[in-house]
Design a protein that fits this description.
heterodimer; A: mainly alpha; 12 helices; B: alpha/beta; Rossmann fold; Alpha-Beta Plaits; 2 domains; 6-stranded mixed β-sheet; 14 strands; 37% helix
Chain lengths: 252, 303
């Protein structure tokens, strides 16, 4: 597995896709800065994530995009393995197919972490240029927030790895990245719960990846953090088991 | 020792058998030519050996161990269907990817050495998508040589190559087989080329191994035969059988009689002319692999 991780990391820093995705994030944040959306927030912290229960659209969307871009990168390298036929070289050598999945997950986590750091640093720089105060409630809160987002990124990556291995169709997988990352199903559940007055549906919606992501805050709230950790781990386990089963049964 | 041994290997797709009860025996150090028509099951078999397809039944052993053994699998180099290259990467970078995949030590040195061996050391940063098919095939072979393989599984590595490319691949394969003792399982439609390098053959028809034969036995079986072209081959056959005895192996086709292991054309001509049959051609032949393969497909190889 270590060999596969080394191989994919070398690929990561030598293929334009990784830099294109970083550029995409940069362009998105630059657009926010230029259109004045950033200035509407009261602090840099509010740009990164919700400080209190009232989050803002920009930070929610920005973080979702970080998660989505990380997942797009992972499904793309899997897609490339299959389209070039290199997967045959990999799976002939690595008899244990789950090592392929785990390697991709590790690389996806590293890429997501890099994107997250890039996003936060860029936010701080752009916020500072706009003259916004830092306003981070606590460093501990920020660390827990980042850990939570990273865990959700791992779960989302695992889910999308399974998706790409099942359908082996990159455009569909990229579409799924947006669907799961932006939380289309989560919003639908929440709206249904609200309009039909079924609180259970709204509760369930907070247990999806996007739903869990939306409750993450920069203020330390132990219950919310545990919620995010549990959700991430459950989704991760589900996605990994499913992906391994698919990989074992499916021909190459 | 056998490098590859399959026992009753079977695989179907949507209920249609692609490989049925296939028993294959590839000796260590051999170049095993795996031949069969399109759709005969060659690629399916090779993919099963590589672990890329799951057999419905049967088992595979590699060097006496299970086909799933990680240690053995790391010593296999494959080219299945087409060269597996990253199109936007150079030859060196493609080699590096495979080297990392294999966990090769002294990577840089090894890559340079192999690129030289396959004649691609002067491609610099040229992207592999700009390579000719021959160069791509050679690069793919180069990839298979990283990690000191014991076994190469090559599916149609000469497909689409020009004569020069074919010669280059042939020479490379012979060289690595002789110098490094690497066992090669190779499928190819270019039987003339295959016959120049293969030491063993397996002939597959409709998913079944119909014959496994080594080079010497094939040479023995491909001994000379005489073709007597006549307008009435059945009448000629009767005469020849009477003259040469019932044990003489004879085949009759639409317009000719083939007499195996026989050389006296003059005697046959006298015999036929004496009975009013005039041969338009009497010729000595030696079967080549292509003819032998066609005969095997028609079930005529045991004559």
């Amino acid at each position: 597995m270590l060999n596969l991780i080394k191989m994919d990391l070398r690929r990561t820093f030598r293929t334009p896709l990784f830099y294109a995705l970083l550029l995409g994030l940069g362009v998105m944040l630059g657009t926010f800065a230029m259109t004045g959306v950033m200035g509407e927030n009261q602090s840099i912290a509010a740009l990164i994530g919700p400080v209190s229960s009232a989050g803002n659209m920009m930070s929610t969307m920005g973080m979702s995009m970080v998660l989505i871009f990380g997942a797009i990168y992972v499904v793309s390298i899997i897609g490339k393995d299959f389209s070039t036929g290199f997967i045959k070289n990999i799976l002939t050598i690595h008899a244990n197919k789950s090592s392929y999945i785990l390697a991709k997950l590790v690389v996806g986590t590293i890429v997501s972490a890099l994107m997250l750091v890039f996003y936060i640093v860029l936010m701080i720089i752009l916020g500072a240029i706009q003259g916004l105060p830092v306003g981070i409630p606590s460093i501990g809160g920020l660390i827990l927030f980042i850990i939570g987002k990273l865990l959700l990124a791992v779960a989302l990556n695992a889910l999308l790895i399974g998706f790409e291995l099942t359908f082996r169709n990159l455009p569909i997988s990229i579409l799924a990245c947006f669907m799961f990352g932006m939380g289309g199903a989560t919003m639908l559940l929440s709206m249904l719960g609200s309009s039909l007055n079924i609180p259970l549906l709204q509760t369930i919606s907070t247990f999806t990846i996007a739903g869990s992501s939306s409750i993450g805050m920069l203020t330390i709230i132990a219950g919310d953090f545990i919620h995010i950790v549990i959700c991430s781990l459950v989704w991760l386990a589900f996605a990994l088991i499913t992906a391994c089963l698919i990989m074992k049964r499916k021909d190459v | 020792m056998l490098a590859i041994r399959t026992q009753k290997l079977s695989r179907s797709f949507k209920g249609k058998p692609a490989v049925s009860n296939l028993n294959m025996h590839v000796p260590e150090g051999s170049i095993y030519g795996f031949i069969g028509q399109n759709g005969a099951g060659k690629s399916t078999t090779q993919k099963m050996i590589c672990g890329l397809l799951h057999p419905d039944e049967g088992n595979i052993s590699l060097y006496g161990k299970s086909g799933d053994d990680s240690e053995i699998r790391s010593k296999i180099g494959v080219i299945i269907e087409s060269p597996a290259l990253f199109p936007n990467a150079s030859a060196y970078e493609n080699m590096m990817m495979q080297a990392l995949n294999l966990g090769v030590d002294n990577t840089e040195e090894k890559i340079k050495e192999i690129l030289k061996l396959v004649g691609l050391s002067d491609t610099d940063k040229k992207k592999s998508k700009l390579f000719s098919l021959g160069m791509k095939q050679r690069l793919a072979i180069g990839q298979t040589l990283l990690g000191d393989p014991k076994l190469l599984i090559l599916d149609e590595p000469m497909n689409g190559l020009d004569p020069q490319g074919i010669i280059e691949i042939r020479n490379t394969l012979q060289k690595i087989n002789k110098e490094q003792g690497i066992t090669i399982l190779i499928s190819s439609h270019i039987l003339g080329e295959l016959s120049r390098i293969a030491t063993h053959y397996g002939i597959i028809k409709q998913g079944e191994m119909i014959e496994e034969i080594n080079k010497d036995a094939l040479r023995e079986k491909c001994k000379e035969y005489m073709t007597v072209r006549v307008s009435n081959p059945h009448m000629a056959e009767g005469l020849i059988r009477t003259a040469l005895g019932a044990n003489q192996p004879i085949e009759v086709t639409e317009d000719a009689v083939h007499i195996h292991h026989y050389q006296d054309g003059e005697k046959i001509n006298r015999l036929l002319v004496g009975s009013g049959i005039y041969a338009s051609e009497i010729k000595q032949h030696k079967m080549d692999l292509e003819e032998y393969f066609l005969a095997a497909m028609e079930g005529r190889t045991h004559a």
